[in-house]
Each structure stands twice: as C-alpha cells, then as structure tokens.
Design goal:
By secondary structure, the chain is an all-alpha fold. The protein is 75% helix and 1% strand. The protein is built from 23 helices and two strands. Strands 1-2 form a two-stranded antiparallel ribbon. Strand 1 and strand 2 form a beta hairpin. The protein is globular and about 65 Å long.
C-alpha cells in the first residue's frame, strides 16, 4: 500500500474489529444494540390515514438540534482543544517524515469517523420520526450524516481557533464572546420572526402556530447560521428536492471547509505542540478509567467561590461536599448537562402538542430515556472509585443514603423545571402534571437504585462495555413492573387522563427502589477498587 496513513487506518480498523470479535462483552453489547435497533426499525409505526406532519417542522428540529450541538462542541473544544490524535498517533506520526498537513488531514478524517459513531443513537429515533414525518431509512441516514458533519465542523472550527489563539487567552475569550453574541442575535431574530405564532397559540390554533414558528428555522433566514444551519439546509433540501438551496448551502460548507483548513495549515503556531499535551491528558484519562482510578489531570480554571463545606458531620459531609461541587460546576443543584436535557425536552414538547391524546406520555418517555444518561453520570459513581467514602466510620446504609441525597434533590428540582413548562405547552391537566412529576422522580430513584445494584453485583467486572450492558439490562428489568402496573390501573380503574399510568409507575418504582437499596446496603462496607 503506497500511503502509510491509509495503511495505518486500515490496520486500526482491522484490529478494532478483531477486538470486538474476541471480546464476549463487546460482542454481546453489539448484538444487543443491533437487536434493539431492529425492534425499533421494524415496529409498526403507522399514522392514521397517512397524514404526516409537514417536513418543514423536521427541518426546524434539525436546525435547532444541530446548532445546539455545534455551539456546545465548539465552545468546549476551543477552550480545551478536543483531542484529535491519540498518544500512539503522536508517537508514530509526529517523528515520521510525513507532511504535517497530511497528518492533519488524517486526524480530521479520523475524527469524522468518531463523529459518525457518536450519531449512532439517532438511529433509535426512527420509530417516531417514521410515524410523525414519514421518514424512511434513507432519510434517517441523511440525518445521522448531517449530525456527524456538524460535530466534525465544530471540532474543526475549535481547532482553528485554538491553533490561531494558542497562548493568547484574551484572543480566545474574545472569539468565544463573538460566538455567544452571534447566537444571541440569532435567537433574537428567531423570536422576532415567530411573533405571529403567539396570537395563534393564545387562540388555541396549535398547528398553524407550530407551522409559523418552524418556518424561520427551515427557510433561508434561519438556515444562514454558520455551519449548523447550512448542514441542516442541505439535509432539508435533499428531503424536499430544493436543489437551489442545496447548491447554496453546499457552496457555503465547502468554502468554510477550505477557509478553516487554510487557517490551520497557515498558522505560525505548530499544532504538534498544541496537541501533544492534550493527547497525554486524554491517554492518562483512558488509563485511569481502565484501572478504576481518577485521572491525575486537573482543569485549568476552577470556579471556587466560597470554600469549605460549612456543615456536615460523618456521612452527612458527603451530601454537603456534593452541594459544593454542584455550585462550582452547574446552576444550584442542576448540572449543565441536565439543563441542556431540560431545554431539549421542553423544545420537543412544542412538536408533540398536536398529539392531544398522548403528548404528555411521548414527552415523558423521551425525558425518561434521556434521564438514563444524566443519572448514570451523576456524582455517586465518581465517589465509588475514591477510597474516602469507605473510610468514614458510619454505617454503610447511612453513607449510601447521604451519597444519593444530592442526586434525588437535583432530579426533583429538574422534574419540576421540565414538566411545569411542558404542561403549559401541551395543555396537560394539573393532576396529570403533578403525577407526571412524581413518576419522573420515581424513575430517578429507580435508576439510582439500578446504579447501586450494578455496582454491588458487577462492580469488580473490569469491562466497561459489559458494565454498560448490565446497567441498561438491569434498568429494563426494574422498569417493566411499573409500566405493567400503570397500564393495568389505567385499564381497570376509572381514573382521569393518564393518572393511572403515572400512579402505577410511581408506586412500583419507589417500592422496587427501596427494596434494592436495602438489599445492597452493604455496598460501602468494603472497598473493591480495581488498582491494577
């Protein structure tokens, strides 16, 4: 093979495939994902009479979603330089007699492959996209490719800014402020353009209001937001056959790609030096995760503010420690990731309000799906890989309850912040709203108990893929009784709305969670740390 970079890429792909085939955990997880996708793809999702919603609404959803993801990745990457190279790449490629530009292209296209993998979760949205908008498999593939291109360009923009402003903190901060300003202007234009939808909402004309509100994001004014708007315009044009829009957005994307490459390749700063430290930090984080330890690296900027716990004695100090950590990394009890999920769920409710009979169930289902990830990434799991929580001379059950207290309070606040606005948007009854919030909190308790169960039973398993599989399987088993009881109560009891569903899930989830926590009360008695 003539090109060493092509050879290196082919060998890496071959070795990764061999690793999956030789690892029972990865193979089992892969089969599980394929089976779940098949279940979603071949399920019956029919719209009565074939009356699909306007495809312009889907274009508006894609524009908003792509823009949010673009801004998140860009802001994060431009300040911390998202790693495009691994430490093995640095060791093999940087000393080699290859052009830096060729190595840069290798890193960029390798990152595009990673972005495609990150878009895999979008495949599981086929069911509702097919039933609501008539989206086929080809359309879904275009949405995934658009998502991958959005992440790729966000990382490319972040690298261009980082390379050009390396060592100049004020310059990097100025560019990020300009991006925030552009986003604020875009939001103001969107609000101004959607002003005609407000009178329609007040009159109860939801469908015309939604059409008027989505028009901005699916037409040229809204599609002119850099990169994310252009990519959404390409995907929407392929859906509708608008070749003029396709050509215009494609030219803008190609011009942006050329300009970004020119900025990076013509930079006076050597990007080798810029990515070296990032690759080392990324490798140390990977090694720490494999060994069950914390990474040694610390963030450059920490929002300290008030220091000290102020309160807490013994096991209760864990709760106050979590409060301090949340104050420094989020807004009150709510993490930045949870706030983002809340915005996405509330935005999703605008598009579900037309389903008068099942809007709140659809929003609740999506919110519960996203809640899986927010609970899994909570502070409790991070406490278990540190020795301190095991050394506190308190009963293990007391330590367990205090370590979970912060997460439950945060999830309760989050449930209110999400479903009160959702209730106003979709017109849900106050009774349904209250019990929906209670069911949301009960699922938070259930997912937390599932975390504890997995750590208690499978905590010594070294394979993270296998742990991830056990986590989802355990939560599925724990959630089934509540869903069944909810359906039974709704079917056989004369309760208004969806009160029976939420009541059944809440009761069953709380009882199962308390049982699991009691049975796993000895989790914090002895440390089973993996220190290989």
């Amino acid at each position: 093979m003539k090109s060493p970079l092509v050879y290196l890429t082919a060998v890496k792909l071959k070795n990764q495939l061999k690793g999956v085939l030789k690892s029972p955990a990865k193979l089992l997880y892969g089969v599980f994902l394929i089976a779940m996708f098949a279940l979603v793809a071949f399920a019956k999702n029919e719209t009565v009479g074939g009356n699909f919603r306007s495809i312009s609404e889907l274009g508006a959803i894609l524009t908003i979603f792509y823009t949010i993801m673009f801004l998140m990745v860009f802001v994060t990457g431009s300040s911390s330089n998202t790693p495009m190279f691994t430490l093995s790449d640095v060791t093999l490629l940087f000393p080699s007699p290859l052009s830096p530009n060729k190595i840069l292209f290798y890193g960029l296209f390798r990152q595009l492959g990673v972005s495609l993998l990150l878009g895999f979760f979008l495949l599981f949205q086929y069911g509702w996209l097919n039933s609501v908008y008539g989206v086929g498999y080809g359309h879904l593939l275009l949405i995934v490719v658009g998502y991958a291109l959005t992440l790729f360009f966000a990382q490319l923009c972040a690298m261009a800014v980082y390379v050009r402003t390396s060592g100049k903190d004020n310059a990097g901060r100025t560019i990020r402020l300009c991006v925030y300003g552009a986003a604020a202007v875009y939001i103001a234009l969107a609000a101004f353009s959607c002003r005609d939808a407000l009178p329609l909402l007040s009159q109860g004309d939801y469908e015309p209001a939604l059409t008027a509100g989505s028009a901005f994001f699916s037409t040229l004014p809204g599609l002119l937001f850099p990169v994310s708007g252009w990519i959404s315009g390409i995907v929407g044009a392929l859906f509708t056959g608008n070749w003029l829009q396709l050509a215009m957005c494609a030219v803008l994307i190609l011009a942006a790609f050329a300009a970004l490459l020119l900025l990076i390749t013509k930079s006076k700063n050597n990007y080798y030096e810029d990515v070296l430290q990032t690759a080392e930090l990324a490798q140390s984080a990977i090694t720490a995760k494999k060994e069950g330890q914390l990474a040694e690296a610390s963030p450059k900027n920490v929002k300290v503010g008030k220091i000290g716990l102020g309160k807490g004695l013994g096991a209760s100090a864990i709760y106050y420690k979590h409060k301090v950590e949340n104050r420094r990394s989020g807004v009150f009890f709510i993490s930045n990731m949870s706030l983002l999920f809340a915005v996405i769920i509330i935005a999703f409710s605008f598009f579900m309000k037309m389903a008068e009979d099942g809007a709140i169930i659809a929003v609740f289902a999506m919110g519960t799906y996203m809640q899986l990830f927010s609970v899994a990434l909570g502070r409790f799991n991070r406490e278990l890989i540190k020795p301190y929580i095991y050394l506190i001379p308190e009963p293990p059950l007391k330590k367990l309850l205090y370590s979970l207290k912060e997460g439950l309070i945060a999830d309760s606040i989050e449930a209110v912040l999400i479903f009160v606005p959702v209730a106003f948007i979709i017109g849900a009854s106050p009774l349904d709203t209250v019990f929906c919030i209670l069911a949301r909190i009960s699922f938070s308790l259930l997912f937390t108990a599932g975390n504890v169960l997995v750590e208690r039973v499978f905590g010594t398993v070294s394979s993270k893929v296998l742990i991830f599989f056990f986590y989802f399987f355990s939560l599925l088993v724990l959630a089934i009784p509540g869903v069944v009881l909810g359906v039974v109560l709704m079917t056989f009891l004369p309760l208004p709305g969806f009160l029976g569903v939420f009541l059944g899930m809440a009761l069953c989830n709380v009882l199962l969670s308390l049982l699991v926590l009691y049975l796993c009360r000895g989790l914090l008695q002895y440390a089973e740390l993996n220190s290989r």
